[in-house]
Each structure stands twice: as C-alpha cells, then as structure tokens.
Amino acid sequence: MKYRYTKFTGDLLDEIDLQDLVSKLSDLLLSSGFGNPRDFDAEERTMQALHDAILDALFNGGVLPEETIEKLLGDPADGDQEGTRSKLEELIQQIIERMGDEGYITLPPDLDAERQRRQGAGAGAGPDQPPQTFEVTDKTLDFLGYRALRDLLGSLGKSSAGRHDTREQATGVETTGAPKPYEFGDTLNLDPAGTLLAAAQRELRTALAEGRPASRRIAVEHEDLMVVQGEYQSSCATVLMLDCSHSMILYGEDRFTPAKRVALALAQLIKAQYPGDALNVVLFHDSAEEIPLSELGRVRVGPYYTNTREGLRLARRILDRQRKDMRQIIMITDGKPSALTQPDGRIYRNAFGLDPFVVTETLREVAACRKSNIMINTFMLARDYDLVSFVRRVADICKGKAYFTTPYTLGQYVLMDYMDKKTKTIH
Fold first, then answer.
1. pTM (2 d.p.)
2. In this structure, are residues 168 and 326 in contact, taking their beta carbons and an 8 Å threshold?
C-alpha cells in the first residue's frame, strides 16, 4: 500500500497568540464612552466593533507575522478577492468563537444571525436588525490588569517588591538592623550567632564570678535569645478616586480608559505584592459613589460636572473604617471642582472658572482628610494655570504629592508613587 505525503501547513488560528490579541483589544474591552461622547447609553461593545478591532489587530497590531499575512491575502494578481475575503471572515469568526470558548467574552446566543446581519442577507436577519453585543468577563478584566501591571513595571525597570517600608524598626523577616534581646511579643526570628555569643558571654561572666573555668558546653537560656530586626512593614488602605465627569472623554482624547487600566494594574499589584493592603474605588462626577473593584473595567463616563468634595468626603468615610497605619487617597482627575452637594441634597453646579464657594468647601474637606491623617496624592491630567495652583494648595494642606502627567505616563507615576515608600512614606 502506497502513502502520499503532503506538507503540513498548519492552521492560521494556531499562529495567533490569543492573550496577545486580547491585550491589543484592551481599548475596546475597557471602552469608556469615548466613541459616543454625546450618548451615554450608546453601546460600543457590538459584534461589529469586535470584528473591526480584531481585523485591525491582525494587520496593524503585529498579531500575525508578515509572511502569514501575505499567505492569507494571497497574490493580488490571481484576482480571487472574494475567496480572500471569505477566508479572512472565517478566520475572524474562529477567533471570536475561541475568545468565547476560553472565557474572555460572553457571546450572543446566535452568531449566525449577526454574521448574516453584517452581510445584509438572511431571513429575519437583515441590515435593519439591531446589532448584537458581547459582554466582557471578569477573566478578561483580571488578565488586562495583569498585563497592564507587567507593562508598567517593565517600563519602570526593577522595582522594590514586598510591603511598605517605614522608618520604624521591628523584628521582621529582613535583617536590616542590629540584633536585639528577645522581648515578649517579638517575632521569634532568632539570630543564631548573636544568641550563641550572648550565651557564651553569660557563661564566661558566671565562671569568672565563681572562680572556675568556663564550661565547654554552651547552655542557651531565655535571657540569651537574640532576634534580628527588620524595617517595620505596615499595611496601607487606599481609596482610588477616579474622575468620570464628561471632560474625561472630551477634547479629542480618551483619558478615562487609561485611568481604568491603571486602577486594574494597581489592584493586581496589591493582590500580588501587598496582600495585607486594602483598595477601594470611588467615582466622582455630579456626585460620588463607591463601586466594587470587579465592576471597574465596565464603568463608563458619567455626568458633566466634577464634585471633588463629595468624592473626598466618601473616601474619608471609607478610610475611617479601615484599621490601617497608613491611609491614603489617590485622586486621578483632569478638571477643576465644579459641583457641591448641599445639606438638603441638591447639587450646586458652576462650570465657569474656579467658583470661590466650591473651592473653599473642597479645601475644607481636604483639611478634614489631613485631620484624619489621610494623605491625598493628586494625579492631574490637565495643566491650566488656575488648576495647577488649586492642586498645589491641596498637596500643601494634606502634605501629599501633586503630579501633572498625561494619560500615557499616568500608570508609571501612580505605581512609582505607590511603591516608592522610601521617599514618600505615610506616617
């Protein structure tokens, strides 16, 4: 029996790194309403949007090597454009189905209807049918947070890992101070050399006092125990305040999606390296509300105004409940305070300039945070002269830091500030 062997060419789908592709799609998966600045309810996560984003990632995102793209497109001289288009559509459909199978997205129940709607064919699935949508899963949000953290730490170089350092000495794991005699309550992190030396010195003193030779055998007693000292490492409670007012997606730039990406990276950092820390998220716009960390990636921009005082007030209440030595607020914003919640619940708004009434009440809340020993570190995405002056007053009152950055460098500044406790220690 004769066998005919052919060259194995493989499947195009096998050449695609799905995790790399999901990273390329992060702007779509974390969409904040930038594509629809006038319609908060407009849905961006349609199957057509996913299709177009995958197509762009395949050809412009470096997901496929050049030779694979050439093989996929074939020779233009052949004139089989219809076959090429069909092959490409089939590949994208396979990618979408694989993303659903591996739990990155939740697909609509009928993908065939969506395919027919895009092609404008099929009974009951014409072009006038509303587009179907997909949902982003928690797995995707965790993965994008991990990727963001990895990319940000890579751009920072080697960063200190571990917990937050302070100036106090304690019996920790790292040996950074001289040994000390063990006291009740200390971590029993014994220094063997120091303990044996203390026991030998005690035996020598006793032998000299009693007029006898010192024993060759060293008997260690409780008073001889020596423990090593390390830097006292404290847990930290953080509230991340995100400005989701309408200005975060205006002026031709999406500032809210990078802020969400940084928040997801910060959550991954705390989970991996600072497990004793606490992180809460507060959104502020016309008013303010706390959201679960799991919902952060799905949040879109809110109403038009910026109620900074209400966000600070809510953050202070959250931190007052935390029994942590170090408490801080990380505030990411791009605008001036322009709203206040009045005692009767009504919201006072003024978007023109820095309203003295709004500024005064906001600074009063900053002072209340300072009184509660809460530091406020502000990351400003705009550089108006009056706004810069206001942010510096906030930093001066609460002894915090003010960073004037861009959406492209925001993540580096936030993580550097969070980890670099040698120069930015909270006491």
1. 0.69
2. no
